[in-house]
Specification:
two-stranded antiparallel sheet, 12 helices, globular
Length: 390
């Protein structure tokens, strides 16, 4: 394949321009922390939101922090066990969740630095929750079956998390200062009430809140519903004013290529969109074969004009689903002027040649977003007023 040129929010050596390929020009770049690796754990929700909060600390002038995702994940598992028992086994005890899960756990227990609680207390150099999740399900199912949570159950739950994630710290030293989890959290100055989740769907009224109907919204959180153009306006306004955006959406399409560093939403291309030298060959292709040409990711092609109706159809046909959370950190344009959102992933830095980043096209984001999280001050004043956010 041809080399891609990406302008990311990490320092990367130029890979050299090529005749074909995606060539990006930086428009906006917001400072963020380094790329992390969720590895074999379904905890993208926490990695993305933690990255978002670390960027908030940078924006606030607090400095660079590496916060513990697993400290939050542990509390989330505890909350799920409680919810599942109260619902007589009908709760969601999977590994997934959404951004507000981070915020709810943060309000309960705060957070600690990664170096204090890495969450790997087993024989592995990276996160792997397969066995942990199996035992978690067994404990959840047993308590529901017995209709009782005994002291032994409580001990088993604590021991399970202590065994896999490590014992919770009561006090610790960080950068030469003694803290408890509570005092460390207070020192950060983050207020979870300052953050809002925004979505855009036509089956609920705009400018009101509703519970987005995805399985990972097991806490039944309400989100503000905006017209699609205004949701995109919020995203652009935030990034252009020094705020980052936590993003949740669908990454199951062929147009999402982490390996190639892009996510695109192409329409079926026409003969005039292709090189003249290949026109005879291209004219013989059917729709599927033409799209296969696009998915070689050798250069930009025209993309779908995503209206609210197009977006809603994808959601109601279950082709736009709640798959993955990531962190939007900037804006770039390609050589044809198409806008893309610089996206920090949590799959480590080794799975693509772009330091763990990719660029998602505006069309892709319009179609495949489930919701975004931003600081309320990142909202344009007119939109904030429409939503009644103080």
């Amino acid at each position: 394949m041809k080399t891609l040129i990406l302008s990311c929010a990490v320092a990367m050596a130029s890979m050299g321009a090529v005749a074909q390929g995606y060539q990006f020009k930086e428009v906006v770049k917001v400072p963020v922390t380094s790329v992390k690796n969720q590895a074999s754990s379904g905890t993208c929700w926490c990695f993305a939101t933690t990255s978002f909060m670390e960027a908030e600390l940078l924006r606030m002038g607090k400095g660079t922090y590496d916060l513990s995702e697993m400290y939050i994940v542990r509390q989330k598992y505890m909350n799920q066990l409680q919810d599942n028992f109260i619902r007589a086994g009908r709760g969601n005890i999977g590994q997934g969740s959404l951004s507000h899960t981070f915020m709810n756990a943060y309000r309960q227990v705060g957070i600690v630095p990664e170096e204090v609680y890495c969450g790997i207390n087993y024989q592995s150099d990276r996160h792997n929750h397969e066995e942990l999740a199996s035992y978690l399900h067994a404990l959840a199912e047993t308590s529901v079956k017995l209709k009782k949570r005994s002291p032994e159950y409580d001990s088993l739950v604590e021991n399970l998390f202590d065994t896999y994630l490590g014992k919770l710290p009561e006090t610790f030293t960080y950068q030469g200062k003694e803290y408890t989890p509570k005092s460390f959290t207070e020192s950060l100055g983050l207020n979870m009430d300052d953050y809002v989740e925004l979505t855009s769907f036509t089956h609920h009224p705009y400018y009101q809140q509703f519970e987005v109907e995805v399985p990972d919204n097991w806490e039944h959180q309400l989100m503000y519903n905006l017209p699609l153009d205004e949701l995109m306006e919020v995203t652009d306004h935030a990034l252009k004013n020094g705020y980052t955006v936590c993003w949740d959406g669908d990454v199951s399409e062929k147009g999402f290529s982490f390996k190639n560093g892009v996510a695109i939403n192409p329409e079926v291309i026409h003969v005039d969109d292709y090189a003249t030298t290949d026109r005879a060959r291209f004219e013989k292709m059917d729709e599927k074969e033409r799209l296969q040409e696009v998915y070689k990711f050798e250069r930009p092609f025209p993309e779908v004009n995503v209206t609210p109706e197009v977006r809603q159809e994808g959601f109601e046909k279950f082709v736009t689903t709640d798959d993955h959370l990531m962190h939007l950190t900037g804006i770039v344009t390609d050589q044809q002027g198409t806008k893309y959102y610089v996206t920090k992933n949590s799959w480590g830095t080794e799975r693509n040649a772009f330091g763990g980043y990719l660029n998602m096209s505006e069309s892709f984001v319009r179609a495949k977003t489930i919701y975004i999280t931003v600081h309320k001050d990142a909202l344009p004043k007119a939109i904030r007023k429409k939503l009644g956010i103080q």
